[in-house]
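Run folding on both entries below.
>entry_1
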Amino acid sequence: MPKKKLAWDGLSLSDKEHQTLLDYLTFLSEGKTERKSWRILEQWAAKAGFIPLAEARSFSGGQKISLAVRGKAGLLAIAGKRPLDEGFRLIAAHIDVPRLDVKQRPLYEEEGLAFFKTHYYGGIKKYQWTALPLALHGVIFLRDGEKVEITIGEDEEDPIFTINDLLPHLAKDQNQKKLSEAITGEELNLLLGHDPAGEEGEERVKQAVLHILKDKYGVEEDDFVSAELEIVPAGKARFAGLDKSFIAGYGQDDRICSFAAWKAIEEIEYPEWTTVVLFADKEEIGSDSNTGMKARYLENFIAELLTLQTGTYNGLSVRRSMANSKALSADVAPGYDPNYAEVMDKRNAAFLGRGVVICKYTGSKGKAASNDANPEFVAEIRRSFDKEKISWQTAELGKVDQGGGGTIAQYMAVYGMEVLDCGVGILSMHAPWEISSVADFVMLMRGYRAFLTSSV
């Protein structure tokens, strides 16, 4: 098998790229929910000159426009030199991440211990979420509609939370179970407290917890019905390895691609083609709901931009624009790990330190639920990356019959546009802490920018 040149070889980081690495660590640390990720991106976009769609009166000459989708997803666009109905260049990533969600009737007490019931979101290994420092992020809408934001467990003065595990001395039966069954979903209960704080009557600890929530946030027990509370790993992202060549942090699938997509569009002024970057929600659970990629906000956004550009709405022009476009589905690939080599086809695996990863198709087994990119478009991306001296490699999602997974590529391809999956390799994907390569991250930012600024 031919050896690929390492992305590290000859890699020289500019001062700006060094600072960008630190900015990425901050983004991972502060943007742990899709709401917080979009809020950060929206603030950055505003500073870079993007104006909300509702305030725009035209779309031409490098004008920058943004659209928030219910505070959990969004789009950014820059008007290009060519008419929008000739197509646009799109990078689409997702900002939701596997986690635990608090149930709508979550709070209970059992033998002097208070807990939250949870429901896991996305593909997780449940045992990885026990005996781990956890934080609580989210929003609660009170009966009168007031929005209350909650973040507990990130500040050094905050308490953290945890989910109990069984001690090994008594785990004889648990050890006989399959790994996927040793911890069940209904056992992922968040430990909240056990001080009754002078309460009287039944469920004294539960009542004490409710008093804390009432005093600090104005929250009643019934308000959990209209809450969106997410349980995530506590702590900041940081460099890993003796040589600091890795990035360790929660949610790099897919916030590494989201951040790189933002950096690619941040300093573009007047591109040949209109450039669009999309940040989707709900990818980890199938892209459903009105903030997922199956919703039609991309199509609606393009319709709005075309109307601003031409002065009238034309449905045929919208369809032409979408079909004439080219897109990168910005998502990560499983990195090759020698400790688990048996699940990989080594000739078609993503290796950390070898640059950007392009996946012609994803899906499972017989390419089910996959976009299978046309070779003409793959060749175009190859030429672009080679021209800009960007290290790249190809990969699949492991051995054919081992499993698999999908991305949002298929939901863009349905419009007729050319789409290719493009990201980086990740170790420990979907674990509370994921690992990426510094060199790959730098190449990813350069690769996305090369795509958005191409004149082809």
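>entry_2
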Amino acid sequence: MDFHGFLKALARRWPTVVVCLVLAVGAALAATGLSIPVYEARTQLFVATHTGDDSAQLNQGQSFSQARVQSYAEIVTTRQVTAPVVKQLKLRSTPEELASRITAVAPLNTVLIDITVRDTAPQRAARIANAVAERFISVVEQLETPKHPAGTKQSKKGRTGGDDAPVSPVSLGVTQEAVAPVVPVSPRPLLNLGAGALAGLLLGAGLVALRETLDTTFKTSETLGEFTALPGLGTIPYDKNAPKRPLANSDGHSKRAEAFRKLRTNLQFSQVDDPPRIIVVTSSVPGEGKTNTAVNLALSLAEAGVSTCLVDGDLRRPCVAPTFGLVQDAGLTTVLIGQARIEDVMQQVVGGLSVLAGGAVPPNPTELLASTRMKEVLQELADIYEVVIVDTAPLLPVADTVGLASLTQGALLVVRAAKTSREQVRTAAESLERVGVRILGTVFSMAPVPKGGRYGRYGTYGYGSYGELPAPRASAHRTEAAASAGTPVTGGR
């Protein structure tokens, strides 16, 4: 997926990004609200050496201090410093716990040591920082004080009380005492909010990228054509009114009606040298719009003056007759078992389209559709009509269509946008090619188009579960044919 495709995916799946952003920001605000404020108190020490007035000695002493100060910073968190402080201030923590809240830093090329103490109480943080500095000074000076050689007498005077008393070559002084901080260093609401927003955006973008990677459906007819290497004969846009008004010609100026006219034209021009007379319309799985495509393609051909017959070849869940409000019980199965002739059960609808309903649902649809008699019926229809459109069952759930398609001269494969997976399309195409069926092309149904596109804004629609019948059409579309008894058919489903 390239960058442009990723941006389109973000625009298409923006609710995912928004949800992740809201959740992450909410988590950041909750963490900020539940966090206990932490304060920092800082004190600063200066390390000096005892030297004479000679400038060389002064330089040597400063170099000595800078060399030693890095080591001094490591002593601040030792037990020698923290244990007396815990005892002195009567803290409810161990020396190790106190050490974890102390930070000592010696800036490079300086003789300064910064001691920082973190605590939940600002006054206590300042007291601890000052106590640590005081104890640290004592420990360092004791460590730096030279000891008498073994066997010599040590003066009973103090550290500076006599000429023989050992003196520490360094001394530490406080340049800045710790004071109680006013503002806590943690939590930081603005920082947490920014981090939460950034994390939410990254999470949302990651989920979008993951979904796009795992989503193997087709978003555009171009990607479908690249995958199947089959011509895309038509793209049928989404129409929210399609379930209630399945016949696109009821509104002759709609974008959906125009799309079926374009499909009709592309089909006629795609096979100029060898135009198919018997065409099956099928799909991989239920709910892809194959019946709707077959019905409206047949109507569009009839409106163009092409003598057309629409056959309901889905004998498990027939939907053609209910779409027009025709009689369902007399139709293809009635002809196949020899109870009626084609002309006896053929029904007419407005527009000059002839419809052969499915008839009664048989117990063995696969055998009937692949029978020699079915081949004869199709040939009889081809002798009467210029084009025979056969609506069939989906390819993958049942084997009915494979046997029937082998008796025809071409197949249209309907693929639903953002619904049919690549594996389903590949398996369906291979099943048709395996029995020698010529796939005329694909129809990209229920296709959304970008906002502001020439078809406007579209989503997706469907007819419910496979086999769920649409509402009957008005009486204007009811049959004008006679049933086998010769009486006009006035009823419908």
